[in-house]
């Protein structure tokens, strides 16, 4: 007996089955959230060396491409694309990374640790100085008792918070170092994986392309390739540009702060450079705690520091940033703020760093879909036409 399938009801049945199955899976995951999270963490721990290796390979590929395209292809060397050029490029790449890491450990890290240790030791004296300053101000100028008590209560809260932070800072740094050393084997394996990936990166690209063409139709495969190239362009330009921009800002900040003899120069420059990677909020995240640190030593120098940072950020926003990044984002400040708030709330510091390029990628896909639908309807795609 031959069954006559109704395509309409078959499609509805299939979609209903998928929705029900997805609902059951979501319920099982939600009801066993702790167990599911533990299993995911176990799976990730197995693949952690590969994840680290792929991230390293993606970041180091910018250096490798620079050496292969700009250095090893000059007329003096004129090396042809091949194994020899790739090996020399890899040697230069990892030598550069090793040199930067060595310079950080040799010159920057000891200064940062010394600044932090000095800061922790000086915090009680700084707190006493501020407390004495408030008391002298109250002796010289009459302050109504309710306002004075309010200021004292708020200051006591901040003082307790600062002391608690200083107490926990050294153990926190120790735990961070311990975590890094505990992951040293995964980092070593990640470096090995990154070398293999960069050595045969063209083969990996070809294999991925082959799989996509086998799984999808030719039209959908082209779309996948286009989206992959777009995501690489967005993330590549943003991450590499931001790292270079932040490195320049850190050096510039160090030079200027040294000239003005601002305290905690290395520590503050490092904080400013690292937080500058975060768009929009980065300068504030780095400058505010740095200004508070300097305020403990000298209010006048803290004011000078704020003015210096404002000038440096203006130089970065109007000269350095546009030269390096160009219009790599292509979205308004509102959407940058929106993406940072959402990604930062969901994923913390990592969200603040990668939230903007992720949003730009999603935004570009939605923009393509909307414009394609408008073109089918014979409507203009320019937003100005609808104002």
Give a written overview of the molecule.
This protein is mainly alpha-helical and 387 residues long. Helices cover 86% and strands 0% of the residues. The protein is built from eleven helices and no strands. It has helices spanning 7-31, 33-71, 83-140, 145-182, 184-199, 201-215, 218-259, 265-275, 282-297, 299-325, 333-376. The mean pLDDT is 82.
Name some characteristics of this structure.
mainly alpha, single chain, about 85% helix, about 0% strand, 11 helices, about 375 residues, globular
Task: Please outline the helices and strands.
Blueprint: H1 7-31, H2 33-71, H3 83-140, H4 145-182, H5 184-199, H6 201-215, H7 218-259, H8 265-275, H9 282-297, H10 299-325, H11 333-376
**What is the count of DSSP helices, taking H or I runs of 4+ residues?**
11
Which sequence of SSEs, written as H and E, runs from N to C?
Answer: HHHHHHHHHHH
Whole-number mean pLDDT: 82
C-alpha end-to-end distance: 63 Å
**Main β-sheet: number of strands, strand sense, barrel status?**
none
Tally of extended strands?
0
* Structural class by SSE content: mainly alpha
Give the C-alpha Rg.
Answer: 28 Å
Uncertain segments are: none
In terms of DSSP E residues, the strand content is under 5%
Shape: globular
Percent helix range: over 70%
């Amino acid at each position: 007996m031959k069954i006559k399938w109704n395509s309409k009801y078959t499609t509805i049945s299939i979609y209903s089955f998928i929705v029900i199955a997805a609902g059951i899976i979501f319920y099982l995951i939600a009801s066993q959230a702790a167990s599911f999270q533990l299993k995911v963490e176990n799976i990730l721990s197995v693949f952690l060396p590969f994840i680290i290796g792929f991230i390293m390979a993606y970041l180091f590929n910018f250096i490798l491409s620079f050496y292969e395209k700009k250095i090893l292809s000059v007329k003096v060397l004129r090396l042809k694309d091949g194994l020899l050029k790739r090996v020399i490029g890899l040697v230069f790449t990892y030598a550069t990374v090793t040199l930067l890491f060595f310079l950080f450990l040799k010159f920057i890290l000891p200064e940062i640790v010394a600044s932090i240790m000095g800061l922790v030791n000086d915090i009680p004296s700084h707190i006493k100085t501020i407390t004495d300053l408030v008391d002298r101000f109250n002796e010289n100028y009459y302050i109504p008792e309710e306002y004075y008590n309010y200021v004292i209560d708020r200051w006591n809260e901040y003082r307790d918070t600062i002391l608690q932070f200083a107490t926990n800072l050294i153990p926190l740094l120790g735990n961070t170092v311990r975590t890094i050393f505990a992951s040293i084997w995964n980092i070593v394996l990640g470096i090995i994986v990154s070398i293999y990936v960069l050595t045969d990166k063209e083969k990996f690209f070809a294999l991925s392309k082959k799989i996509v063409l086998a799984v999808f139709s030719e039209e959908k495969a082209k779309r996948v390739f286009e989206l992959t190239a777009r995501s690489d362009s967005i993330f590549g330009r943003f991450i590499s540009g931001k790292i270079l921009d932040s490195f320049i800002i850190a050096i510039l900040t160090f030079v200027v702060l040294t000239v003005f003899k601002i305290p905690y120069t290395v520590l503050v420059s490092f904080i400013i450079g690292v937080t500058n990677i975060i768009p929009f909020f980065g300068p504030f995240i780095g400058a505010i705690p740095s200004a508070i640190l300097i305020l403990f030593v000298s209010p006048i120098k803290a004011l000078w520091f704020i003015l210096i940072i404002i000038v440096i950020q203006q130089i970065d926003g109007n000269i350095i940033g546009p030269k390096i990044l160009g219009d790599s984002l292509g979205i308004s400040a509102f959407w940058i703020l929106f993406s940072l708030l959402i990604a930062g709330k969901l994923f913390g510091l990592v969200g603040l760093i990668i939230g903007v390029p992720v949003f730009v990628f999603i935004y570009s896909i939605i923009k393509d879909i909307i414009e394609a639908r408008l073109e089918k309807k014979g409507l203009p795609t320019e937003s100005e036409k609808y104002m």
